[in-house]
Amino acid sequence: MVRSLFSARSFFRDPVGYVSAHGEDGAPLRLAAGPSRFVLVRDPQAVWRVLVTDADSFRPGKWKRRARRFVGNTLNTLDGEQHRRRRLLLQPSLDRRRIARFTPSIAARVEEAQRGWRDGARLRLRDELDRLSLAVAGEVLLSAELDPGLATSLAVVMAGVPCFTPPLPGTRAARALARVESSVTGLVGAGGSDDDLLSALLRGGLPERTARGEVIAFLLAAVDEPPSGLEAAWYLLGRSPGARERLEAELDEGRRDYLEAVLRETLRLFPPARHIDRCPVGNGRTNVVVSPLVTHHDPRLYERPSEFVAERWLRRDERPRGAYLPFGAGAHACIGEPLARAIMTETLGGIARRWRLHVDPDAPVPGSRAPRLEVTLERR
Ligand code: HEM
Predict the structure, then answer these.
(1) pTM of this prediction exceeds 0.90
(2) Ligand 1: residue whose CA is nearest its atom 18
């Protein structure tokens, strides 16, 4: 049953609240937004079928098709054999072992970012995280030192996605996109080096326009996703003094298990990719939505689902597959996961060893529309 013609709007405003009010039985929820129809699939087994087992019965969803209009045919928006070929071409440049080679350099950048920090200073944390994450992505993906101002332009472009794709002419988003495009044109011209993403794209013989779109899509992900995960981690730690103390104590002893658990729990509560969409082959009107956000809050899968309990990840995880999917699953699962993990672990570990970041008690809950988190620095 479709609940109301505008139910999708209420759902996207507060997905977890909507689901707990309307769907205690776990069955798929049908939602509507004017003429569009969505089916929200929540059960881990059903999630797994959509993303993995029956993936051939689905095409990229509406949101991706919209993104295609402004970055062209990128990995994220391709399908079937074309997707498989592009993924094989790019995979080695994001491979776990290759990314591991950059760990010392990422750690050095994290140290460098803290150089000007002063005890008691206020900091717009997300700005720092965006610049850091972009600098790492520039080195790993393009073998380039990127202009830090590019982080701001990318953030402006990202804020307009997916509502205004492509951005309307004359808007701030359109000007930011023009700046991003011109920087990326220069970078693509420089050609990358060795085994990085850019040299793979050029080696693959892709048209320059496609290579540019692909680079932009990767940079957007790099500036949006790991910083948003890290911002949420500090928000949660700021409200859980016990967790923050345990993290500091373990870092001081050179241990990282709790750090990993904090990040896992953060990505459960605030998955940066809140929803993933697919379109069933032969039924263009109904979008199927898998929501990491909703599934991660299911009380049948997680005890005290809305609480930050990093310890739950220190025990053996016996949940069904499909219960935890911040990076998605199947053929389209996040290709940037090793890089994202390296950025998040080195940044959270490298900063929490030296600084305590205080969050105001009334700080806004992290989310795509939330203002950027401000923190007060305390040297440890
Ligand atoms: C915490 C950080 C991140 C999270 C939570 C995340 C999440 C996701 C998710 C859920 C998907 C699957 C989308 C789908 O199935 O439709 C995905 C795909 C993707 N991600 Fe990430 N991502 C993160 C970081 C990154 C980074 C740093 C990059 C780039 C360097 C990146 C690049 C991509 C690309 C290119 C795809 C498309 C893969 C494909 O379709 O084959 N992501 N990501």
Answers:
(1) yes
(2) 334
